[in-house]
Specification:
This protein has about 280 residues and is an all-alpha fold. It has one domain. Helices cover about 55% and strands about 0% of the residues. It contains 11 helices and no strands. The chain is globular, with a radius of gyration of 19 Å. About 35% of the residues are buried. It is a multi-pass membrane protein. InterPro entries: Fatty_acid_hydroxylase, Sterol_desaturase/TMEM195. It is found in: Endomembrane system. It comes from Mucilaginibacter ginsenosidivorax.
């Protein structure tokens, strides 16, 4: 089995490397400054650590979902329609997982690293906390209790995250009618913005319809300023992974308790200025 999986993993990594290289060339030729050398290496180091963490926590994640799957009163059939249902359900769950991660300080501790990138490019997609696998499966317990096959849940979540890799780029502009249904690079750039108008917007993974249904959608209407409102954090991968937890245990009431701007105080100030 390992011999079968190994080559495919290498092909995927090569494909990703080609895309990143193409984006770097585009950024250089168009003078877009989408890449910073130190930040890019930091992203790659974080990516390596995240890949290791997947092996470390894989058993735990499957055990959590497997345990609750056994408690389900029924099990849905394994067919294409059930997989589609599972995929949509997983995306709906991801929306709320992601949204709560912006508003609840303990989850923001895991998520802060992803929004600390000062540049939007494909390598920023894997600026993910090495310990996020501890909490993510807990949100998918409802899907297991609804009788959805465990492997369908896992595959749906993996595909969801894989899709989001392609959203972290400035190459692709507005996609017209697609913007009304799917999460797109334009919508996701908004999500990473520290502009007051972009704060806590566009949480969707694959579909943007959840944001439109629950009032968190914002179109890209002005140039996006990336990163936290508190500014640059670090290019040290260990500092990046730990920063959110350090803030959490210090129990500070800082702007970083919410997401990319993450500051309730800033929101209130903006509202007062408008009124």
């Amino acid at each position: 089995m390992k011999h079968q999986i190994g080559p495919y993993r290498i092909y995927i990594l090569l494909f990703l490397a080609i895309l990143v290289t193409a984006e770097i060339i585009w950024s250089w030729k168009k003078d877009k400054n989408a890449y910073d050398v130190k930040e890019t290496f930091a992203n790659l180091y974080v990516f390596v650590g995240f890949q290791f963490s997947k092996y470390l926590f894989a058993g735990y994640q499957l055990a959590i979902l497997g345990f609750f799957a056994k408690l389900a009163p029924f099990t849905l059939a394994r067919n294409g329609w059930v997989f589609l249902l599972t995929f949509i359900t997983a995306d709906f769950i991801y929306y709320w997982f992601h949204r709560i991660s912006h508003h609840w300080k303990p989850l923001w501790a895991f998520h802060l690293i992803h929004h600390s990138a000062m540049h939007m490019n494909l390598t920023a997609a894997y600026r993910l906390n090495w310990f996020s696998a501890i909490v993510s499966p807990l949100f998918f317990i409802p899907a297991a209790l609804l009788g959805m096959p465990t492997d369908f849940i896992v595959i749906s979540y993996v595909l969801n995250l894989a899709y989001q890799f392609f959203l972290h780029t400035e190459i692709i502009g507005n996609l017209g009618v697609i913007e009304h249904v799917m999460d797109t690079p334009s919508s996701h750039r908004v999500h990473h913005g520290s502009n007051p108008i972009y704060i806590d917007k566009n949480f969707g993974g694959v579909f943007i319809i959840w944001d439109k249904l629950f009032g968190t959608y914002q179109a890209e209407t002005e140039k996006v300023n990336y990163g936290l409102t508190t500014g640059f954090v670090s290019n040290n991968p260990f500092v990046l992974v730990a920063r959110g937890f350090i803030d959490l245990f210090k129990n500070k009431k800082s702007p970083e308790t919410n997401e990319e701007t993450g500051t309730i105080a800033l929101k209130q100030t903006c509202r007062q200025a408008i009124s």
